[in-house]
Amino acid sequence: MERVATAWAIFQGLLLEAIPFLLLGVVIAGLARWLVPQGAWISRLPRHPVLAPVTGALMGFALPACECGNVPVARRLLASGAPLGTGFGFLFAAPVLNPIVLASTWAAFPDQPWLLIARPLGAFLLAILLSMLLAKLPEAQLLETALLSERRLSQPLRKLDLLQRGSGLIGAPLPDSTAPRPQRPSLRNVLNQSSREFLDLLALLVLGCVIAATVQTWLPRSWLLAIGGAPTGSILALMLLAVVVSVCSSVDAFLALGFAAQVTPGALLAFLLLGPVVDLKLAGLFTVLIRPRAIAITAVAASLGVLLIGQWVNLWQL
Fold it and tell me: Is the pTM of this model over 0.70?
């Protein structure tokens, strides 16, 4: 019964911590859809393989939300026809680059200036790497089915014919002059869609929090921190801890402060980099964006990237 009570307490903490940011993300996505006609500015985003993810990553400075709140915003970007690199660059970088997370990192580690530089820089590089990797996959193999349909419907007819847009009709691409001007959706439609999106994401969030709370309860953190002094072992242990704990990126620096003296610098940075990209709570939320194979590719690539960054920091700091 004690473990059940512990799991319930952890579940409540994770859920209550994440819901406000999830709601904030849905609200921002809904406002963007209502205030800015679809396609009005999406078409101006760069589509260069490098500039697109860089632009998306830099957009993360404008959103004070953790990884849960970024999912609905990234989904709206991709559904509106934004370049894949831009949508994923925002998704992976914003949880660390947003002002609240940067401020919390500074508040937790004011005496470690290297970390205040290494965390946002590492998150930026990791987001570019993951975005460029995922953008190489065909959209049909990358994006979740419903999102892919929305994205195709948002494309101008000059780029996709009617059959490709999912209308069931066969037609050739139309010239530029026939492309309809973006229309602002009604406020009622935006509210209805945002409500459905919030409920869908909330269900996935609850499932993720249940899994994270269960794993945390039966996998004590002391086991992972016991090898905190080993250069490579400490990095792997803290990466696993980041995945299991699934704490919000806006407060993970304060959690890391509790064991910072017991682990290597590379392991500390690895914990702060991997959690906002890969954790048990996010696994369910990502299913509204990408397919399971793409989620697996993201998890493996992010883990390898963070491991290399952590190893380099240990060589530099130790």
Answer: yes
